[in-house]
Amino acid sequence: MSSPKVEIYSKMYCGYCYRAKRLLDSKGVAYVEYDITLGGEKRREMLDRKPDAMTVPQIFIDDVAIGGSDELAALERDGKLDALLGL
User: Fold this and answer.
1) Cα(1)–Cα(54) distance, rounded to whole angstroms?
2) Which sequence spans correspond to the domains of the chain?
3) Above 90 in pLDDT, residue 3?
């Protein structure tokens, strides 16, 4: 079984971004991080993918918008994150 593609849109000095990445790192999950601190094409891409995104991080697993750090932590707390990550 292949690992799902995990993507995170983040900004520098973002505590929530750090928390989400730390959780994924603790599980040994590889992810692609897009720094949108200065806006640009990746910020536009994030908004195309999730038009109501007002905060970072925005996390996608296999192109499905998961939400932010709180939503990722809730999935972990509810025992659902490992299944999404193929663990």
Assistant:
1) 34
2) 6-84
3) no
For 18-31, how does the pLDDT look when each residue is reduced to its tens digit (9 = 90+)?
999 999 999 999 99
Q: What are the residues facing 34 on neighbouring strands?
A: 9
- Entry field: residues in the chain: 87
Please tell me the predicted confidence (pLDDT) of residue 53: 94
Query: Under a CB-based contact definition with an 8 Å cutoff, are residues 33 and 85 in contact?
Result: no
**Are 56 and 9 contacting, i.e. CB atoms less than 8 angstroms apart?**
yes
Quote the CA–CA distance of 73 and 47 in Å, as a whole number: 22
DSSP output for 7-54 = EEEE-TT-HHHHHHHHHHHHTT---EEEE-TT-SHHHHHHHHH-TT--
pLDDT class of 1 with cuts at 50, 70, 90: low
Work out the angle at residue 28's Cα, subtended by the Cα atoms of residues 69 and 47, and round it to the nearest 5 degrees: 35
6-84 fold = Glutaredoxin (3.40.30)
